[in-house]
């Protein structure tokens, strides 16, 4: 983002500079920073974010995988946006961007990340796709959680994570709600911390500054996307 350009009043930040700094620490932590390379297959993880399908189309055209599974049914947060299901809308968007139909598999029942991985694995096996490496395509702040989940449920596969290349400011603009975005960052970090205790994911090291930022944002009320809240 250019420096020194006045921001219009209606676009000015509603969270404090300190909170934005804390959110940026968590945003950066959620992204794995993997170097992209060709993989046996890709999974586009369903969510409210159509950028997943856009990124999948870009990476398909770049030759990084021969087949992608779009995975996801509906959830309370996506039903209005994607009434026919996340995976179905992702497929339609990817087709509109030039991905051939034969390169797309649709898994339309998954209701959480574990099911995204498990059901996609079954669908790829049924289609005769041998997988030794997997490109996971997700929302930017979901990379680490999807990685930790896949390492737990599909440990044999080498996992490479990818997402739409956006900075936090740009992502906030795309969603249009600063507090909601920060709530989502905090909620995903809670899952990264808590899910290994339930056997849903492998443990991830959380650096001290990231954990401190998480605690500060929790204390400030960024908590609408917590589990058991």
TrEMBL record:
CDD domains: YdcF-like (cd06259). Transmembrane segments: none annotated. Residues 52-156 form the DUF218 domain. This is YdcF family protein. It comes from Streptomyces prunicolor. The lineage of its organism: Bacteria, Bacillati, Actinomycetota, Actinomycetes, Kitasatosporales.
